[in-house]
Write a structure and sequence with these properties.
One of its GO terms (biological process) is GDP-mannose biosynthetic process. The protein is mostly beta strands. The chain is built from one helix and six strands; from the N terminus they run ββββββα.
Length: about 80
């Protein structure tokens, strides 16, 4: 991951950001381009199997989402 840009964004992978601030983007692989527009305080994580988009202010509550995935039998995506 590179350092923060002028708008406070952290990016790993291929991404084009427009009017985006304080956002973290992590994208695996070079086959996909992440494009954002009008985001603030967002977490975006893209893997071959899952795309997670979350409000950074609520990341501490992510355990509830993980529990929901387990209850729905979607453990393979964890």
């Amino acid at each position: 991951m590179t350092g923060k840009d002028a708008d406070g964004n952290l990016v790993q992978g291929r991404a084009v950001l427009a009017d985006t601030r304080e956002t973290i983007i992590r994208s695996d692989g070079d086959n996909k381009l992440v494009v954002t527009f009008g985001l603030k305080d967002t977490l975006i994580v893209e893997t071959p199997d899952v795309l997670l988009v979350a409000d950074k202010k609520r990341v501490q509550n992510l355990k509830a989402v993980l529990s929901k995935l387990r209850r729905q039998g979607l453990d393979r995506f964890l």
